[in-house]
Structures are given as structure tokens and as C-alpha cells.
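With this grant's support, we have settled on a layout for protein records. An illustrative entry appears below exactly as we store it:
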Amino acid sequence: MVNADKSCLVVIDVQEKLAAVMHESAKMVSNCAILVQIARTLNIPLLWCQQYPQGIGPTVEPLRMHLSDIEPINKQCFSCCAHPDFSARLEHLNVETAILCGIETHVCVFQTAMDLMQQGLYVHIIADAVASRKPDNTQIGLARLAAAGAIISSTEMFLFELLRTAEHPHFKTLSKLIR
């Protein structure tokens, strides 16, 4: 089970021009925003990446408003791990688990997850917070990640796995995010 104290949330490329063409984009963006709020409330560190923002645009506003105090990692590589700033920040966090959300499932999310697992981290993919243009690519990406050892979860499942009990001090606040 995921442990907030040893995890980080990685938000990958949820940018205006990309998000606009994703299958079920609104659901994905909403769930990414919920994940960011969960991470902020539970003090889970965040890494935030953007793919070539000069061309693809900034991160969507529902996320950007919760990330304004964090410097994004602007990249052109598909795997976040290929960017030296990402690798340095991740190493500094000294976490065991990376929780991934963003786009596209079969490209940047997939390659980042594979690299993180190769580095020995546990990887959770939040299936309702990732997307691709075509649903088939999302399904294929998730299937390959699961076969490689990634843990496939949902936003709600992830939240309750972190809280573990209705007696958690943030239960009432955070459970409202999914209702």
C-alpha cells in the first residue's frame, strides 16, 4: 500500500494544447487537480513537468493554481527521468514510490514510469488521471505498465489507501473532493 511519507506525486504534461485533444480530458484534468490537492494536504512532495511549453502551452489553470509555488521542469524528452533537473529533484526527495498522473499515457507517462521502475522505485499510475488522444493507447499503455510491475489505481482508491481510516485528521476535507 502507498505511504504518504515515502511518496511523491509526478504531474506530467497536463498542458492546454495537449489536454484539449485528450480522450475524456475533463475527467483527467479534474482528477489530476484532486491528486494535487491531496498531495498538498498530506504534504506529499510534487514534481511538475511540462513538455515544450513554448509550443504546447502552459499547464492547465485548474492545476496551475495549485502549483504556483513550485518551479515546473520544462522538458523536450519524453521520459521525465531523462531531464537532469527532474532526476536531481527526485533524488533529493529520497522517496520509494512515485505516483504518476498526466499525459500521454502511452508516451511520457509510460516512459517515465518505466525509467522510475528501472531505478528501483514503486510506481502507481492513477488510471483515471492519465489520458491519450485515443482510448486504445491509454488501455495499451496501462496494460504494458501493469505487466511491467506498475500498480494501477484510481483517484478514489489512492485517496482511501492513503487515509486508511475515517479517523484520519484530513478524512472529512479530502473525501469531499471525490463526492
Observations:
- The longest helix spans residues 25-41.
- The beta strands are 7-12, 46-51, 73-75, 97-103, 122-131, 151-153.
- Residues 100 and 111 are 11 Å apart (CA to CA).
